[in-house]
Design a protein that fits this description.
The protein has helices at residues 79-96, 109-121, 123-126, 138-143; strands spanning 15-18, 24-27, 39-43, 54-60, 101-105, 130-135, 163-164, 179-184. By secondary structure, it is α+β, with helices and mostly antiparallel strands. The radius of gyration is 16 Å and the shape is globular.
Length: 185
């Protein structure tokens, strides 16, 4: 997949369902095989224990156990419309919940790099709506619990707080943020 994704909140999918608080929505993008696959966008009910007012935004198809499969590999016909719909959900949630932040997990380096490239390519557009922050290796700490510090954990390689993402910033995977935090301007 190329990173020619253009975010446009005027070009989003029709929602099949949306909760009143915008914490959960579903829509059906078309994949390359021609079928429509239901995607779920869900914003966590509880703030992250290490980041006050940050609520995780997860998205993906329903997995075998009924939960969101955020590691699914789908080939969409319109990636721009898919990511625009996901971010539109986050924007609407933030409009309702002043003072909240949403966090999006780049669960592996490839996804983190994709999300960062989408942010950079669409920076001028997104900057009208959001303050955008990155956190490096956030996932590595929180995914396995904050008390798991087995060697060879490199504490020098962890940013302790979110850094504001600027246009034209970091690009090396070694320097890459892998958790992205947005709040409403």
């Amino acid at each position: 997949m190329t990173v020619a994704i253009a975010i446009d909140f005027e070009n989003v999918y029709k929602f099949d369902s949306v909760s009143e608080d915008w914490k959960k929505s579903t829509f059906r993008p078309e994949v390359m095989k021609g079928e429509k696959v239901p995607l779920i966008v869900e914003i966590g009910s509880e703030a992250h224990e290490l980041l006050p007012n940050v609520y995780n935004l997860a998205f993906g198809p329903r997995g075998p156990k009924g939960r969101i499969d955020d590691k699914a590999l789908l080939t969409y016909k319109d990636y721009s419309k898919v990511f625009s719909t996901i971010l539109f959900t986050g924007l609407t949630y933030l409009n309702i919940n002043n003072g909240h932040f949403i966090g999006i997990d780049g669960s592996n380096n490839a996804r983190a790099f994709l999300y960062y490239r989408i942010i950079q390519k669409n920076f001028d557009y997104l900057d009208h709506y959001f303050n955008i922050y990155g956190l490096k290796y956030y996932v590595r700490i929180t995914r396995f619990g904050k008390r798991q510090y087995d060697n060879p954990f490199d504490f020098e390689d962890v940013l302790p707080s979110p850094a504001r993402i600027q246009k034209g910033g970091r690009t090396s995977v070694d320097l890459m943020y892998n958790y992205f935090i947005f709040n409403r301007k």
